Amino acid sequence: MAPRVHFSLILHNHQPIGNFDHVFEQAYQDSYLPFLEVFEPYEHLRIALHTSGPLCQWLDRHHPDYLDRIRQLVQYGRLEIIGGAFYEPILAMIPSRDRIGQIERFRTWLSRRLGGEIRGMWVPERVWEQSMARDLADAGVYYTLLDDYHFKNAGLTEEQLDGYYLTEDDGRVLRVIPGSEPLRYMIPFQSPEETIAYLGRISERHPGAFVAFGDDGEKFGSWPDTKQHVYQNGWLRHFFDLLTANKDWLDTTTPSQAMQQVDALGKIYLPEGSYREMTEWAMPVDRQIESHEVQHMLEESSQWHRVSAFVRGGFWRNFKTRYPESNEMYARMMQVSGQLASLEKAGTDETIQSLLESARDELYQAQCNCSYWHGAFGGIYLPHLRNAVFQHLIRADGFLEQASGRNRARWCQASQSDLNFDGRDEIQLSSDQLNLLLEPGCGGRLYELDVRSIAHNLLATLSRRPEAYHQKVLAGPSGDGDHMASIHDRVVFKQEGLDQLLQYDDYGRKSLIDHFFDREATLDTVRDGSAQEKGDFILSPYDAEIQPNESATATQVQATLRRTGFVEGVPISVSKKVTLGEGESAIVVEYFLEQLPPDQVFHFAVEWNFAGMPAGADDRLFYGADQQPLGQLGSQLDLREVTGIGLVDRWLGIDVGLTCNRPTNFWTFPIATVSQSEGGFEAVHQSVVVMPHWLIQGDSQGQWGVTMRLSMQSTAEHTPATEGATATLIR
Fold it and tell me: Which band of pLDDT confidence, cut at 50, 70 and 90, is reported for residue 479?
């Protein structure tokens, strides 16, 4: 008899750029390999597989036999390879040229290594905007899978999703398949019989239907408790047994094969969106909390099923406003992408083309999506992922510098433009050793500090901010008993005392942040946020100028930032001059305060943050002027009347020294966030605060000043794979 349902099981396997090697290996052993071993004997079953570029490259280096087995299944017609953008970027986040470039490059790689025709594409995180249809079609994509949530937001009902649709942009046609949300929550958390029964109900209402399950392959072994459930308890074998036993009416096949047998249901245009949970995470925290409260209220009144079809969440791009750190990475990525495109237009010889291709690969890797957002997974909260983004951007920038003809061993330059798309100019000071980004419009702060020799941004920091799930942290862990819960439903604490660590920042944890504290402020009150801020300089705009400009030739460049603000009602002028010289891995910062009343004492402090230098390791420590160790980088120090402090990370390969030209007090303390991952709630080290501070009084002319020198000596040629963070990302 003819099949009454065509069912496609589509797996998405992914590990992000920058994730730890042992996480890749664990996911391979727990999920990718055992799934393949269970699937291979079921000769009548066909599935589709998307394996992201970073994971494909890792597998090719470490387990090429796995890819050989996948290639053989492709040759037998049992497995369809689904392509995508090589390094798994959110397509809405990158320029059209990079979308097409990543898709075409990955198709070439997959065809060479795994064989077969690559017709489909996995859209990362199913983040969709209708204009993408044109780029996907231009890149040779025949079909893609989105979430059924997209289709419901376009006005369709559950009963209208038993197939696929055509969509179009600028005359380019693309086939779009709705992935089933009910199946996402059934597989593998409910019994296999539940899935068979669900497909049976579809077959009754729509004979010949096409139904797709598309979700993370890590659900089968890598997500918490699933290894035992899926493999040791036999869930997957039982599922495959039932699919085989019902093959007379249930055709388990690939998307391309199904679409050869089933016509499109019609044509549709889809609003921007993602899967339902992602749209919730993109909303502001207070709206997330209110949304959950309203949903629970309507569920209790049995009205949710009527209202839910008309409820929509947030817009993915607003992660760049929820997390300014995401926008920092995005804006830097856009700068590198634009520079690459400009150099390509200029025409190139073979040598320059090779440099541009190297820059392109680094750029594409920096576009990997996982660092740019946050939900049920660590994402932007994981320092090693943010570090990896900047590592690849800094390397790409280096290749572009070479390709642009900057052949001098030593150079420096200054420029001023709107680098972060906020409508205000930022300042960039660059040299052969360092790259600095200053933000006059927000406290005149330093928000990026790249050390080129080790491709590391010392200001890849993250501020502590409220999250909707912090309510669960305050409520404490839940006991799930034997219930097999999705990661969206689990409340698990990976350590004790997390509720005591919840603290929020009123400003970004960057550097050159100018504080005026109450005179009684201590290390403890500054650390816990209870010290009174007497000035209005932290977030206020500074006037700025650069010397010389970008077109000038100089051995050093400077940015001067000035502001007259108020401290306890007293007008005070603060000026800071940042100097960068060619050939030197150091910056000099000169502070000059004016209009200080002669009879008044002020407590002035300058905050520095250093990221990527984690706490809790003996080879990462503070040291004093005498080179004697002062404790690990997580130490809280209260130093009095010294002229400097050092931080060394021997694993990363950098020695940072901060010295002052006058006796100075120093506070140090770590910044840690409380975030969720698929494994539960955890504390994650984000940065180290180093805060020189003084009780100051103006001279006879109402003036006071200090000069600080920050030196960054690298002891390694290349940045390691950012080991040492406390959190991991499995998917």
Answer: low
CB within 8 A of 82, min separation 6: which ones?
10, 48, 49, 50, 118, 120, 121, 122, 145, 255
| C-beta separation of 537 from 565 below 8 A | yes
Task: Decide: 51 and 84 in contact? Cβ < 8 Å.
Answer: no
Angle (nearest 5°) at CA 95 between 148 and 164: 20
Mean pLDDT computed over 59-77: 98
Strands 637-649 and 83-84: unpaired
> Is 90:124 a contact under the CB 8 Å cutoff?
yes
Which carries the bigger pLDDT value, residue 408 or residue 704? 704
List 162, 169, 181, 216, catalytic entry: 216
Pairwise pLDDT comparison (410 vs 165), residue with the higher score: 165
**Residue 691 burial (10 A CB sphere; 0-12, 13-18, 19+):** buried
Centre a 10 Å sphere on the Cβ of residue 68 and count the other Cβ atoms it contains.
11
For domain 470-714, the CATH class is mainly beta
Element (H, E) at 681: strand 680-696
Mean pLDDT, rounded, for 98-105: 98
Contacts of 711 (CB under 8 A, 6+ apart): 585, 586, 655, 656, 657, 659
Architecture of 5-273 per CATH? Alpha-Beta Barrel (3.20)
Report in angstroms the alpha-carbon separations of 607 from 410, 630, 697: 30, 19, 20
Q: In which residue are the tokens 């539940």 written?
A: 194
Query: Would you state the structure tokens that stand for residue 32, as one six-digit string?
Result: 């990718």
Domain residue extents for the chain: 5-273, 282-312, 317-446, 470-714
The overall average pLDDT reported for the chain is: 93
Q: Is 0.85 surpassed by the pTM of this model?
A: yes
CA 665 to the chain's CA centroid: 36
Which residues lie closer than 8 Å to 280 by C-beta, 6 or more apart?
288, 291, 313, 314
Q: How far apart are CA 172 and CA 96, in angstroms?
A: 15
Amino acid occupying residue 528:
D
Averaged pLDDT for residues 424-444 = 97
DSSP state of 485: -
**DSSP secondary structure string for all residues of 136-178:** HHHTT--EEEEEHHHHHHTT--GGG-SS-EEEEETTEEEEEEE
Do the beta carbons of residue 223 and residue 677 sit within 8 Å?
Answer: no
- Which of these is catalytic: 30, 125, 272, 426? 125
List beta partners, residue 51: 13
Residues 6+ apart with CB under 8 A from 401: none
pLDDT at 521: 97
Active site residue 216: yes
How is 552-580 classified by DSSP, letter by letter?
A: S--SEEEEEEEEEEEETTEEEEEEEEEEE
Predicted confidence (pLDDT) at residue 481 exceeds the cutoff of 60: no
Ramachandran bin of 146, using left for φ above 0, alpha for ψ from -120 to 50, beta for the remaining angles:
beta
The residue type of 75 is Q
The yes-or-no answer on residue 125 being catalytic is: yes
pLDDT of residue 334: 98
Show Cβ contacts of residue 564 under 8 Å, excluding neighbours closer than 6 positions.
Answer: 571, 572, 573, 574, 595
For residue 613, name the pLDDT band (cuts at 50, 70, 90): confident
Residue 552 has pLDDT above 70, yes or no: no
With a CB cutoff of 8 Å and minimum separation 6, the contacts of 540 are 443, 563, 565
> Is the separation of the CB atoms in 698 and 604 below 8 Å?
no
